[in-house]
């Protein structure tokens, strides 16, 4: 076996480079040299790299950013081994990758392997000959080696690279892998390819907004390089049918989808690049054009005649036709198409207010208290409450509309005001006249949105989750904040640049009722729930764990509290109410404990449960920030704090030192604390006071009125 020079290019990859380098150093084939080109990173990539002291690593730290193409070309010049292999600094390898490629290259000039997205496939602990497929590509089938258009995961002979003078074109930033890979393919007879087993893993993009990977950059940014690379490769390999066909299809498909979709939204995408697009498409083989649909064929003729406006109109028609065809497959797709093409063009209703809490799951939280304060005022609005499965008992008799029903789409499109405490559907179009008031639903302890590194939720990826969240936050006009601490985090995590209402949470107004009124409401709630009037109430309200699921929409939760022991030791004085996240509430078994355990997970408004409760048990849920307004004791059942703090979500605050109550790791510890609750209160009094001053300083019982004065009253003044 010959030695391999692994060329790693790095630019601002501090969140990824450690995993990348560890995967190289842990390869089952160890006879490698790692040539690392740090392309003038401005983050901590250099510091992370310098922590490694392995003799197989040679690092070149550039003073000026030169781009990935030149950085790779430098790596080729530095390479001294029989083989070379390219790795991007945000990707990583399965442990057997290099050995597998080397064992199967034979006499070929290079060998390739499949590229997988991280998290989409499990990496086996070990592999045998029956674990993968070895295919040999020749003739026109060689273009399959261009899948994903990447030069990574190719193990190449260094002398082949030198003889063919294979290099990356340094005049472009995007699509430059093709300038290396296409000549390599053309100048080799047969290419062995490993498939069926993960070898090269594309890392998830942790910051798709501010630091997107090359593939995630906008169409506008990539177009000049696409035309340049297409033209250069097309002119060089016109006579190589498979390559010429590949290039033509690459351009035509990109034109038909990405360029068209962007041009429909922003005509400058077409107009600014019209000449380059026209010249590139003129090189496409006529037979390829003839195979396109009749609309595209006509569009190409218009484009060659220089008719910009006509081409744009044709693009708009083609996009609309595609959308309608897709929408006819399912009812919900048809409703969304009607929504974005018809309903959002209907007259806006200036007195219509659409409210929803947790996606229609309840009549609760800050939207509820804003609504009830509006009812007390002299505002004359038409109120619509969104419900998910069944209608709610709501004062004022507002119109209730079922989420995702035909009526929902109509009201979403025509309501001037949206009031919500969570994200609206991704398809929601905020019209210029719409006022979107986002109240959010908690003071952040756990990392949020853009501040999260990895998102571990079923059915989504980190890149998709963060991009969707960013798009949502850009629709907000106002964002309610409960304290100065949250304001700073919200602006950064949500990348929110509009007006933050630093007024406290409307949902906490109820916690500032007079003491007599609080006591009366507490007894009313007890009576409604069937809780004995003489029993004190413990509220257990834990958070949900992002990684505890069986599959998409199927969550699990292991209740660590020993309810039987709690009943035996505390049942004479207390009952316990369980307030679980709705995703796992139905999986909690309380059979045989109906006189002690009350499952309050479906109770509409948690603020009323705060009034009900004498003690709160929680963990990392934001409920303790709100409950602290009552100045009642809080216990933290944090049996998995190391995992949650260090690997799952991470904390913003110094939770272990700032928590206004003890952090307990066992069920017995929780029970002991309740039995000695007066001592706990005395011990944590100073912690509690400092916590209250920092996190509850804006709440005063009038947040709802302050929100209305800012969001709704200006309109009244204009009338």
Keywords:
719 residues, alpha/beta, Spore Coat Polysaccharide Biosynthesis Protein SpsA, Chain A, Rossmann fold, 7-stranded parallel beta sheet, 29 helices, 16% strand, globular
Walk me through this protein's architecture:
The protein is α/β, with parallel strands linked by helices and 719 residues long. The protein has four domains: 206 residues, Spore Coat Polysaccharide Biosynthesis Protein SpsA, Chain A (Alpha-Beta Complex); 109 residues, no CATH class; 154 residues, CDP-glycerol glycerophosphotransferase, N-terminal domain (Rossmann fold); 186 residues, 3-Layer(aba) Sandwich (Rossmann fold), CATH 3.40.50.12580. 39% of the residues lie in helices and 16% in strands. It has 29 helices and 26 strands. It has an eight-stranded mixed sheet with strand order 3-2-1-4-9-6-10-8, sandwiched between helices. A seven-stranded parallel sheet has the order 14-13-12-15-16-17-18, sandwiched between helices. Strand 24, helix 22 and strand 25 form a beta-alpha-beta unit. Helix 20 packs parallel to helix 25. It is globular and about 90 Å long. 37% of the residues are buried.
């Amino acid at each position: 076996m010959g030695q391999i020079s692994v060329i790693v290019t790095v630019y601002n990859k501090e969140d990824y480079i450690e995993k990348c380098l560890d995967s190289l150093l842990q390869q089952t084939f160890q006879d490698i040299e790692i040539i690392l080109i740090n392309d003038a990173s401005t983050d901590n990539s250099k510091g992370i790299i310098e922590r490694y002291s392995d003799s197989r690593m040679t690092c070149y730290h550039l003073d000026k950013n030169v781009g990935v193409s030149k950085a790779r070309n430098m790596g080729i010049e530095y390479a001294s081994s029989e083989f070379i292999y390219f790795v991007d600094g945000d990707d990583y390898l399965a442990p057997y990758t290099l050995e597998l490629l080397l064992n199967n290259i034979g006499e070929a000039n290079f060998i390739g392997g499949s590229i997988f997205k991280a998290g989409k496939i499990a990496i086996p602990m070990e592999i045998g000959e029956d674990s993968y497929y070895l295919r040999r590509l020749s003739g026109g089938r060689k273009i399959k080696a261009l899948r994903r258009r990447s030069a990574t995961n190719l193990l190449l002979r260094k002398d082949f690279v030198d003889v063919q003078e294979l290099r990356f074109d340094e005049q472009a930033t995007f699509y430059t892998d093709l300038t290396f890979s296409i000549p390599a393919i053309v100048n080799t007879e047969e290419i062995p390819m490993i498939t069926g087993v993960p070898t090269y893993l594309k890392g998830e993009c942790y910051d798709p907004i501010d630091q997107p990977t090359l593939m995630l950059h906008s169409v506008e940014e990539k177009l000049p390089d696409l035309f340049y690379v297409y033209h250069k490769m097309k002119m060089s390999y016109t006579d190589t049918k498979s390559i010429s066909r590949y290039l033509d299809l690459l351009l035509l498909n990109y034109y038909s989808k990405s360029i068209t979709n962007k041009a429909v939204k922003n005509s400058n995408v077409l107009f600014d690049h019209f000449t380059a697009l026209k010249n590139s498409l003129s090189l496409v083989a006529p037979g390829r054009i003839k195979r396109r649909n009749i609309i595209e064929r006509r569009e190409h003729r218009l484009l060659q005649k220089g008719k910009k406006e006509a081409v744009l109109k044709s693009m708009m028609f083609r996009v609309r036709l595609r959308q309608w065809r897709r929408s006819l497959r399912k009812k919900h797709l048809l409703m969304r198409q009607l929504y974005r093409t018809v309903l959002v063009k209907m007259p806006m209703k200036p007195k219509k207010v659409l409210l929803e809490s947790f996606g229609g799951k309840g009549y609760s939280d800050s939207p509820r208290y804003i609504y009830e304060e509006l009812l007390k005022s002299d505002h004359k609005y038409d109120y619509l409450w969104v419900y998910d499965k069944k209608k709610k008992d709501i004062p004022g008799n507002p119109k209730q509309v079922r989420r995702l029903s035909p009526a929902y789409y109509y009201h979403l499109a025509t309501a001037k005001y949206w009031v919500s405490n969570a994200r609206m559907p991704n398809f929601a179009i905020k019209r210029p006249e719409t006022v979107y008031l986002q109240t959010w639903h908690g003071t952040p302890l756990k990392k949020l949105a853009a501040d999260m590194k990895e998102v571990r939720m079923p059915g989504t990826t980190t890149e998709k989750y963060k991009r969707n969240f960013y798009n949502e936050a850009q629709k907000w006009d106002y964002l309610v904040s409960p304290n100065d601490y949250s304001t700073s985090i919200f602006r950064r995590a949500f990348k929110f640049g509009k007006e933050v209402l630093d007024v406290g949470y409307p949902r906490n107004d109820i916690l500032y009722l007079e003491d007599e009124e609080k006591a009366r409401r507490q007894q009313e709630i007890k009576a409604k729930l069937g809780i004995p009037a003489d029993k004190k109430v413990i509220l257990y309200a834990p958070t949900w764990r992002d990684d505890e699921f069986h599959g998409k929409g199927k969550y699990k939760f292991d209740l660590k509290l020993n309810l039987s022991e709690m009943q035996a030791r505390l049942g004479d004085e207390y009952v316990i109410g369980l307030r679980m996240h709705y995703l796992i509430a139905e999986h909690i078994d309380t059979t045989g404990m109906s006189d002690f355990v009350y499952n309050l997970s479906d109770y509409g408004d948690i603020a009323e449960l705060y009034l009900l409760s004498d003690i709160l048990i929680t963990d990392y849920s934001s409920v303790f920030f709100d409950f602290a307004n009552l100045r009642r004791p809080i216990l933290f059942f944090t049996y998995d704090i190391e995992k949650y703090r260090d690997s799952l979500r991470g904390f913003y605050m110094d939770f272990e030192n700032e928590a206004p109550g003890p952090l307990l790791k066992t069920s017995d510890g929780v029970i002991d604390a309740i039995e000695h609750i007066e001592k706990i209160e005395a011990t944590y009094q100073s912690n509690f006071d400092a916590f209250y001053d920092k996190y509850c300083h804006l709440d005063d019982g009038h947040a709802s009125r302050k929100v209305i004065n800012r969001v709704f009253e200006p309109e009244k003044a204009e009338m």
